[in-house]
Amino acid sequence: MHELTVSRHIEADPGKVWDILVNQTDEWWCPKPWRAEVNWGARQPGAVVHTTMYGPDGERNEHPGLILAWDEGRRIATTDAVVGDLEPAGPFMLGIWEIIPEGSGTRYTGRARHWTEEAMKQHADMGFEEGWGVMADQFKELCEAP
Known about the structure:
single chain; two-stranded antiparallel ribbon; 9 strands; alpha+beta; START-like_dom_sf; 146 residues; globular; 25% helix; ASHA1/2-like_C; 3 helices; Alpha-D-Glucose-1,6-Bisphosphate, Chain A, domain 4
């Protein structure tokens, strides 16, 4: 498996962490000063998901995809391999965001699974560790806020 991951222990109840994961996604999804608009659509497997990322200099990146798994309170999985009305695309990766209770809080893990080692290396070279790490830190901060 060609996977890159980030993980954080969050001192917050899994219910709160899940709520912020899915209902405040725009607030943590990409490293600032970038911002994102994430539309989870119908929030079920087979639904379209669409993310638009905006850069500080007017950049705009569109990321359409499909929800593969929506396990309420636990895990979301998406892919860019299928977009729109089941149209093949890319593919670049599967994205998986999951939470599990851990001690007095919650373990958050973000995974990017790639079809090839080359795609995984490309993602790593694009700054996966730093970018997804900043996202995880922003997410953790939101979750741990009173």
